[in-house]
């Protein structure tokens, strides 16, 4: 039995899986915790969500962490002291993986992007573009041979919204759904619709500029805001919510 966690910048996502006799995985539970700066509140909510899980039956815990060393230390202590579990934190590497990234320094590539690329390529076994719609929106290009060709990082939906409202006291707006790019009839709508238009326009433009060998590649969307971005794209795009978690099983871990 395996507990998997994706510790992102704004939320923690987890799932508990068990390997069946046919070697397929069965998901026994899953959840999401919004992860503000106050780490203790995050751990309290996690403990509540884990209350009904068979913790003693868990064989290993795998974690993808982009929140830094402070979170890693605190989370390891929480698992050990409160749940009697120890975790393996996955680290970006070049050995034993299908997709070879193009960064000169392993430590400069986000582990979430790396895991999503590994899982995306395993899913397609062909060229793919992996779009992670989280705090930032990242796009990574992987060719048919499993070579990472580089990528893009731009602000995500909520980061753009916060950057606007933080710089002007006059822009106090409602938190609306990201559901259309039509012209807004009030300030809140104008901001939300404009941001969604920027993101979808960026991806639409990128589709016209991908390298020739990736022209027919599959597009995979993951991340918390993928459900808002997907309806704005008018070409085949697959929504894969657990792509980062899927990657945990495919790569070596580091304690």
Enumerate the strands of the largest sheet in spatial order, edge to edge or round the barrel.
Answer: 3-2-1-4-5
CATH fold type of the largest domain: Nucleotidyltransferase, domain 5
Measured by DSSP, the beta-strand proportion falls in: 15-25%
End-to-end CA span: 18 Å
The CATH homologous superfamily of the largest domain: ATPase, nucleotide binding domain
What class, by secondary structure content?
Answer: alpha/beta
Order of helices and strands: EEEHEHEHEEEHHEHEH
- Count of alpha/pi helices: 7
**Major β-sheet, in short?**
5 strands, mixed
> What average pLDDT do the residues reach?
92
Briefly, what CATH class of the largest domain?
A: Alpha Beta
Q: How many strands appear in the DSSP assignment?
A: 10
Give a description of the structure.
The protein is of the alpha/beta class and 255 residues long. The chain has seven helices and ten strands. The protein has helices at 39-49, 69-83, 111-124, 157-166, 187-209, 226-229, 243-248; strands at 2-7, 11-19, 25-34, 60-65, 87-89, 128-133, 136-142, 148-155, 218-222, 237-239. The strands form two sheets. The protein has a five-stranded mixed beta sheet with strand order 3-2-1-4-5, sandwiched between helices. Strands 8-7-6-9-10 form a five-stranded mixed beta sheet.
């Amino acid at each position: 039995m395996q507990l998997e966690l994706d510790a992102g910048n704004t939320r923690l996502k987890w799932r508990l899986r068990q390997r069946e006799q046919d070697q397929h995985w069965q998901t026994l539970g899953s959840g999401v915790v919004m992860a503000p700066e106050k780490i203790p509140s995050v751990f309290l909510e996690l403990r509540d969500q884990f209350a009904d899980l068979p913790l003693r039956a868990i064989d290993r815990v795998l974690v993808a962490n982009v929140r830094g060393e402070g979170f890693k230390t605190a989370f390891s202590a929480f698992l050990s002291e409160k749940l009697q579990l120890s975790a393996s934190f996955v680290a970006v590497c070049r050995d034993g993986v299908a997709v070879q990234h193009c960064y000169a320094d392993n430590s400069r590539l986000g582990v979430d992007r790396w895991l999503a690329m590994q899982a995306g390529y395993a899913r397609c076994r062909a060229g793919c573009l992996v779009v992670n719609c989280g705090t930032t929106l990242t796009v990574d290009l992987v060719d048919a041979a499993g070579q990472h060709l580089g990528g893009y990082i731009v602000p995500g939906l909520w980061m753009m919204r916060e950057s606007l409202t933080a710089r002007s006291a006059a822009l106090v707006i409602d938190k609306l759904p990201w559901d259309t790019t039509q012209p807004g009839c009030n300030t809140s709508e104008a901001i939300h619709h404009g941001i969604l238009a920027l993101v979808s326009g960026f991806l639409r433009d990128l589709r016209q500029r991908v390298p020739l060998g990736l022209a027919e590649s599959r597009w995979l969307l993951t991340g918390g805001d993928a459900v808002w971005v997907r309806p704005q794209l008018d070409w085949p795009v697959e929504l894969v919510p657990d792509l980062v978690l899927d990657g945990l099983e495919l790569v070596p871990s580091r304690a």
